[in-house]
Amino acid sequence: MNIQAPIKHTAAEEVLFQSCEAANAAVACSEESQKLREAAVAQLRDNGFPTRRVESWHYTDLRAAVKQLSTPTGSRVSTPLLAGSKVLSADTHIAGVKIEPWSADKAQFAPLESDDAVGQINTALATCGSIATIEAGQTIDTPLSIENRGAHARNVVSIGAGASATIIESVSGDDGFSSDVTLISLAEGAKATYVATCEKGADAIQLGQLRVALGKDANLDIVIFNAGGRLIRREIIVLVEGEGSNLDIKGVNLIGGNSHIDVTTVLQHTVPNTVSEQLFRNISTGKGQGVFQGQIKVHQIAQKTDAQMACNTLLLSNDASFSAKPELEIFADDVICAHGATVAELDEDHLFYLCARGITERTARALLVEAFVDEAVEQIENEALVEALETRIGAWLEANG
Amino acid sequence: MLEIKDLHAKIAGTDTEIIKGLNLSVKAGEVAAIMGPNGSGKSTLSYILAGRDDYEVTSGDILFNGESILEMDPSERAAAGLFLAFQYPMEIPGVATMQFLKVAMNEQRKARGEEELKTPDFIKLVKEAAGDLEISMEMLKRPLNVGFSGGEKKRAEILQMKLLAPSLCVLDETDSGLDIDALKIVSEGVNSLRSPDRATIVITHYQRLLDYIVPDSVHVLSKGRIVKTGDKELAKELEANGYTDIIAEAAA
């Protein structure tokens, strides 16, 4: 066994440990939950915030980024993405949806990997969230929303057999350090669209994780929308563990100013006959830094897996950057797996063609950039959602283009 | 309408001169054909007219309605009434053809200080123009030129030309990639735009297109200069004898 000298904690890490104690004192829970929380804090004490030396954080140096740790001063009241949506809070009544008051014991803490810093931070600090179950067989037409208003939210969303729903999780706010982890499970034949949006101010650090388990013949569309922030990390960890299940991820990252946005996906196909498709479209401008890490693991018994992954980025300024790291681990021999990552500038030929028709260069650029991003969004089935996202994208490009 | 005076132009950032003292004058109402062998500078000329910054004009001038256009950017030239039908129209994913048409028409109107088109009026205009060119509304819902056949792309160019109603149309090898039926449709489209206050420059390799779009003047381009000018009979002579004699004669 290696003997390692304990690391010297940064000022921000010291504040983090104090916050952990405060969270502990504020939330009562069972001995079992308590042990899991303490274990998470111990992992954080051992390792501190991850640096580039941790492989899964190679492009995002959290330790360097978190200079000081402050609680968000309050969240902007953002307009809901979809009109008529209902918030999943304990005082909302929606037929077919069971909503329970949040408690640490219902937050499904679990032992964590040593490099799962988002999980550790959230486990140690979570004090709020939504606990909701879509009851088996129920079709919920009203869009449901989760607004992560507290600094550290932990949500549990279970979708019963044969049920269907559209859920939108949103986080906004101008500053501070926050995290959210959402555990999503789809039982046999369940169908859901899960949207996670993060629109943050220039000083905010936001760590998010979706941890998903897909049952037999389940169908899940995930839509990711990230814009702004000082540092945003969004992890999507999916166990495709039900035969015949289908996962579709569409993502848009709008990276400008001094933002650093990192999307990391880890998909495990553990059974035969499953499908996953990922498509990300990113804009990096100003001094924006973008990261995409996409890992697909296909287990040996998971024959007939069809896993596709694409990540396309437009760089609009000389100081902008984007790093993409696709990673496939395939142990089955009868699978279709493909990945593609492109980073490019606007096509001058396209620009000239539009300008030659009398479209000013400024308008032509905006048209091409918007078209590039919208291509990912337009493939989403829900038209209201497509329209809502295109409106947000248009507004961001107007302000940052 | 168009006057090109002793034009010299090179590929930007290099010393490669492509246009070497070109003179050409096209009057309102005139259809001028420019013919010439590969590499004579035909497409370069069309790009320079449209304002592509891959080429740099080193001397001479281009006057459009009496004013130099050299300092104008491509969108300003288009709004002033110049239209280039591309030899290879760009496929632009994600931009719906209808959206593109509307933005282009309204940007030009805006540049000229005119009011923007209202959507119903716009749709009516497109439907009329598209019908004549056998372009379905289904095709116009698709992203611009994406997955269009060669013929569809050229018809879409002519549709844009009809809708934007330029005063100078430059057609760069519009006949390339067209079968005979598509050639007829495209030619009819171009002919329907002939009018006393509009000029057309048809750039082509072959005389075939000129059977359908009959030119008033024919100019032979070789090594960046117009080496011979004549009427439509000159095109037939070229078709029969090739370029070699004329170019040799000019060099002598």
From TrEMBL, chain B:
ABC transporter domain boundaries: 2-248
Keywords (A to Z) from UniProt: ATP-binding, Nucleotide-binding
UniProt xrefs under SUPFAM superfamilies: P-loop containing nucleoside triphosphate hydrolases
Keyword ATP-binding applies: yes
Pfam families per the UniProt record, alphabetical: ABC_tran (PF00005)
Name recorded for this polypeptide: Fe-S cluster assembly ATPase SufC
Organism: Ahrensia kielensis
Transmembrane annotation, as ranges: none
Gene: sufC
Family (UniProt): Belongs to the ABC transporter superfamily. Ycf16 family.
